[in-house]
Amino acid sequence: MTRAPGYSVVELVIALVIAAILAALALPYFADREANATWFQEQVKAALRYAQRQAVANRRPVYVLLAPGTVRLCFDLPSPITNACTNELTHHRLEAPSGVAIGTTTDFFFNGLGKPSIGSTLNFTVGGKTVTVHAETGYVP
Known about the structure:
By secondary structure, the protein is of the alpha+beta class. Helices cover 35% and strands 22% of the residues. The protein has one helix at 9-58, and strands at 62-66, 70-74, 88-95, 108-110, 122-126, 129-133. The strands form 2 sheets. A 4-stranded antiparallel sheet has the order 3-2-1-4, covered by helices on one side. A two-stranded antiparallel sheet has the order 5-6. It is elongated, with a radius of gyration of 24 Å.
């Protein structure tokens, strides 16, 4: 008797078990990276809103310094030599988690009325997700 072409039930079960093990190992990696990107994007948006509120409350500019891996809020421009803020807002230096990057290095400030110094709406990405700062109002949706 000749065997019919195809796979046996045992071979199919083994293939499914191997696929399930690989999926169980790989899925948390992708889900964790996506969660980190979403979390950091929300943190950046909250920091921008906070900077605007502090500028209005203190009636002075608050500078938003964007780098590929960090967001800093300062009351004064950083030193051109050391790039350190002399008057950084306490607890408002955000470090991006690994694998999450900020897609711009455009620095700007909110003036004492809460209006950003940028001439047009600023769109940039944080971990592949878009953050928008509207030019006239400084609104961050």
